[in-house]
Design brief:
alpha/beta, Rossmann fold, 5-stranded parallel β-sheet, 7 helices, 46% helix, 11% strand
Length: 151
């Protein structure tokens, strides 16, 4: 039975793609179980950078996107504007544009499920409606950080 759709963050996808990564199999199983897998556009750029020495893994990911195994989601103008506002609202976290565009995409798609290693950022951030992310973290997520109010 498939799991809900998932947005994939950089660290989770790198582990998913690199067979020698310690958590490769568990991230692969978790991401493959989702009924739909989204890759935000700026995440794809980060993955390309991190996989400089793993070009076959990057080519494999692009092939997966082209055949529909992943949904490539480049940021829209509205998402970029929202991401700038999100980054400013969470300035103390130093969230950054890539993570902020993930939040903007999640808001737009009304998706809460996120495959990530970035517990610090994504356990503190809230979606536009105030809900927390449903984090798919390997190894299992430690106790969440208490929620912050968005400014």
């Amino acid at each position: 039975m498939s799991q809900p759709a998932v947005i994939c963050d950089t660290g989770a996808l790198v582990d998913y793609l690199v067979e020698s990564a310690p958590d490769h199999r568990v991230f692969r199983a978790a991401i493959d179980a989702a009924r739909a897998r989204y890759i935000p556009g700026l995440v794809l750029a980060e993955i390309d950078y991190f996989l400089r020495a793993e070009r076959q893994a990057m080519r494999s990911l692009i092939a997966d996107i082209r055949r529909g195994a992943f949904i490539y989601a480049p940021p829209t103008d509205a998402q970029l504007s929202r991401a700038i506002a999100i980054d400013a609202a969470y300035a103390d976290l130093q969230l950054g544009l890539v993570d902020a565009t993930i939040v903007a995409l999640a808001d737009e798609l009304d998706l809460r499920r996120l495959a990530t290693r970035d517990v610090r950022h994504f356990s503190a951030v809230r979606l536009a409606d105030g809900r927390a992310f449903d984090l798919v973290v390997i190894p299992a997520m430690p106790q969440p950080v208490p929620p912050r109010r968005q400014r």
